[in-house]
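Researcher: Please predict.
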Amino acid sequence: MSDFLFYLKLGWEHIISWDALDHQLFVLVLIVAYTFNDFKKLLILITAFTVGHSITLALSVLDLYRLPSDWVEFLIPLTIVITALDNIVLKGKIKNLMQVNYYLALGFGLIHGLGFANIARMSMAKEQNIAVPLLGFNVGLELGQIVVVLVLMILAYIVVTLFRVPRKDWIMFISSGVFALALKMALERIPG
């Protein structure tokens, strides 16, 4: 049980810590089009991201797949840029945007999983069985993401409902800001 809790804490910190800005930005642009009425859809979306994240994390820990870390560090902000750009292009078509986001969450979760793989490989590779560490990490990650989503949804509710900012403008404002920040991160991390 202590191993499970150790990895649960590690997964929680992977999304909650200040060092997880790229992860938090991705979650932000992924969910910006959603409201509290879409909470079930949001949970499915976040879980799709965790599934993608888990697949590459497991493959990496088992040493079945690796990507050079400089490429991973470049691709992570690039996934954020693409997701933010998708929001900007589809801001007027919320249903289409939500549909595309499921695919982005799963697909880009694969890339984000590689971002934590080196640390995970070092700590989980010592284990005889990676099931408990991987489960603990993913439960912690999922719980952390749900907390981040709740905080972001409360912020969106305040802005859109109380301050009466049109939803399209909110999507555009957040997505544009995250796009600029992630593009800067990606340009700084170009491999080579």
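Model: The helical segments are 2-16, 21-31, 39-61, 69-89, 94-115, 117-124, 131-162, 167-188.
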